Structures are given as structure tokens and as C-alpha cells.
User: Fold this.
Amino acid sequence: MATYDYKKGKERIETILDNDLVVIEQNELPNDESFTFSNGYYSWITGVFVDIRDSSALFADEDKEKVSKIIRSFTSEVIEILREDNNLREIGIRGDCVYAIYTTPSKDDIYEVANKTFYINTYMKMLNKLLSERSLPKIMAGIGMSSAKELVVKAGRKGVGINNKVWIGKAVTRASNFSAIGNKNGNSPLVFSECSYHNFIEKLGKINSEKNPQNWFTYHSDEGDGAYYTADITDGTFSNWINNGMED
Assistant:
């Protein structure tokens, strides 16, 4: 193993600690090209995390072909739903969880992200129907979404191509934590931060003016990550297609 040059390491750390960080505050988060190791952006973002329930038991199944088919089916289409958006700033897989982070400078942007969660919730019903038809075990997922103004910085090792954005604030952390409580302990699968809910509910109400969508949500008081709302909302057209046999 190559020996770590701790003296040069000390120089690099001192450079980081002694340099000024330029924080640029703007509603929209720019693309990766705008980030350097000496700047950061304070912008409105929304995170979505989709986390499989009881994945430890699934991964422990000795039929690895079966497990791989289930995981690939889950990740493939969740990623497909999340990735189609010009506001997307990061997407990936963490273990049994698919996540995406968007710049959301307007209420309409936050609504569009919420709409993706409705599609994912509907997709899980389609996936489970297809799994059942093949005598494969069904899976459940928690879908967490959170919005906030957050500091985003580029971190890693300068000059070696190993770097990534770090999200400093509440949106990403809370979205991840909320996904862990969806479809668990009696909760509905969709879990929204209070900030997300208040930014998309007006538009959801206008689109569904005859249905009073506020009644679709259950309010939960702050349990450590802020107050949140749970729901089990699906896309109507997609859901009807599933219920009618998924024929062309």
C-alpha cells in the first residue's frame, strides 16, 4: 500500500480551512459545471428517496436470481420516473434506496416533484401485480420527499477527479428519514415534509378542485425531523390501466 503523505495532507487541509468560501444565494441551483472547490450555492432544492421495506430479509433469500430480478425491476422504473426532469441535479442508488435531488425554485417545480412520487406509488402497485403473476414476493417501499433552502458545496479530493456535491441542510436528510417511515407502523407509503406539502397542495387542489385533496393527507406532528404529511395517492390514468389488466 502506498504511504500516505501526511505532510502534504496537512498543507491541503490548511488551504481548505484558510480559504474563503464564496456562498452564492439564488433560487435555482446551477449545473455541476458552476461548482468549484471555493464556492457554494444556497438554493431551493427538493429531495426524493424511495426505500424498500424489510430489504434485509429480501437480500438474505438464497435464490439470488429471484432477488436480482426484483431489485432490478424496482430500481429500473423508479429511476426512469425520477430522471426525466431538467431540474434534476443528482440521482443514484444507495443500497436498497433510489434517490433524486432537484432544484425547485418555484411552487410549480415542487408540485412536479410531488407528482413523480404519485407515479412511483402507482408503479409499485404495477410491479407487485407483475411479481404476483410470476409467484415472486411482493415488496413495499417508503417514498419520502422534503424541500428546503440548502447549502450545496463541491467536496472530495481536488485534482484527482474524485468529488461530489454535499447537501448541507434539511431537505435531503429529511427526505431520506421520511422514506424510512413510509409504509411502516401503519403509515401510508408517501411521506412529505411540511414545507413540501404547503408548496404543492394549492396546485394539487386546483387540479382536483372537485375532490378536496387536502383530505387525502394525514398530518403528523414533529417527531424529530419536523412535522410531516402521509398519503397514498396514485395517478388515476395509470392506476386504471393497471386495474383493467394492463393491456394495450
About this structure: The chain is about 40% helix and 25% strand. Residues 22-241 form a domain with the Alpha-Beta Plaits fold (CATH 3.30.70.1230). The beta strands are 22-25, 39-52, 88-94, 97-103, 141-157, 162-168, 190-193, 218-220, 228-231. The longest strand covers residues 141-157.
